[in-house]
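INTERNAL AUDIT FORM
Audit reference: QA-55
Scope: verify that the stored structure record matches its stored sequence.
Auditor: D.O.
Record contents follow.
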Amino acid sequence: MDLRAIGFDPSIIDTLHELLDIHEEGEKSQTHPSRAYIRDSKAMAETPADVKETPNAYVFVIDMPGLKQDQLQVQVEEGNLLTVCGQRKREKDKDQGVNYIKMERRLGKYLKKFQLPDNADTDKISASYNLGK
């Protein structure tokens, strides 16, 4: 069911997630994971990847369908942690009166993290975008 037909704006879910995360930060518990952690864990589990070792490099192949190149972020964080992420949001319908009958394509956050070896030369890290090839 397309909830927009009854006046529901899907972008409000993103706003609600942010508000819940802000509220939760004030009530941090050592025994329960945060909502943001749970969402990140789910995004990581649903983002398939292959890792290959060549004589000169490691190659990471990650499937993030529906994302455009400018929607992807690749960075190396402290401790040689390679992070690749992006977010696919629902496209705005240009035609008025359009209602989805079925929606199976994934929306939301994609996230994959890889711990690089201590001797990894992070200055030589490069990324390429292959449009699903």
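Auditor finding: record pair retrieved intact. The chain has one domain: 3-124.
Action required: none
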